[in-house]
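ok so i was messing around last nite and threw this chain in just to see what happens. nothing serious, just curious
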Amino acid sequence: MKSVQTRIIHVFEIVAAIMMAAMFATFILQVTIRYTARAEWIKEIFPFLDPTLYGWTLDFCLLMWIWMVFWGNGFIVRQRDHVIFDMLYTSVSPKMRKWLAIISALIISLTLIIVIEPTWSKFYILRLKKTATLSNVFGDWIRVRDIYLIFFIFCSAVSIRYLYRAYFIYKNDAEFDLLYSNNDEIRSSNENKNVL
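result:
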């Protein structure tokens, strides 16, 4: 089970890396076009470098950025990678800590589920609106709503993750988080000593 989970996470990481590479390549193209735009002779020799053909690069970089942020936070970032204000959480008894973790996980999960419908209703009108420049490259099928579709994927993924987290803590214990993060710190400090 652990190897399947690791492979799935690797697939999510590969997708994020592809998005990052696409954004970086588009950014390099954008810089190239910007610095060659004033040289008329370049446009005459290389007609594909005509600056009027590359208005889509800014929108595409923004699209990739939005997708990378929500994709990464929805599928890749681990619970222990988040900034946590846990003074109250660590100061209470283990039994209370367990219930605090379960309740907070359920609140996060249910809030994200509740947010989906009203947000979808507001975004529904965007199914008609085409993007200003991306439709020139990708065709008429891409709509503004498609750009923000990742938000709904993010809400669903994080909601499922926190439901599972609540179940896991209920079955095991909330102490697992504290032990796991301490083991990671011990492991990383040992690795640093080996490097030195």
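not much to say yet. The radius of gyration is 23 Å.
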